[in-house]
Amino acid sequence: MAIAFGLTLLAFQGFAQHKGEFWAGYILSADIGSRWALWQDSHFLTRSFIIGRTGISYRIKPHSTLTAGYAYLQTAASFSTSLVRPEHRPWAQIDSRWKINGNTRYSLRFRYDARFRQSIDGNELASGYIFYNRFRIMNRLHSDIGIWKNYRLSVNFLSEVLFNAGKQLPSNRIDQFRTFVMFGVQPKPKYPATRPTLALFAACCSKQPASIRCNYLVFS
Q: In a designed cystine with 51, which of 23, 73, 192, 210 is the match (CB 3.0 to 4.6 A)?
């Protein structure tokens, strides 16, 4: 389990609004061979989205992993905070990690999302989907801070930049900047081939006016 506090800056224009919401999530990576693993994660952010994401991972180097898969979402819409807008999202990422010392490591992740979102006509959903690309770069600094009753205690500092691009968007631009501090309590895996993994993502939501969103998170 991890408890975290995060800030998400959405858009970069207008006057900032401060909002708080609850975020719960679960991420699991299970080995199916010496280099292969199955990926599954689910998240619920009360006013922004619910997502189920699956994938398969392949370790291309000892400290670099390539993952690709598919996600389905229900998101809020510009006319409603209810999660009414479907989205299909094929995705892929490469994650590389480097050990700084015995307790600290740095990781850099690049993720691509192919976003197929249901179209909107005024204040209602329309038939068909719009498509655009999202590129994401995340930096993460992880440090183990101690052991407590067979649980590993850790702290993580994360930052992520998200950029949207596509012909069906009014402009190509930075969509969000996210930063988090996460405190983790991680038990030993019950099954040797299963590695519980804690990670952070933020919300998809309306971008005007600009807002700074406070996320209070519980992960298991």
A: 73
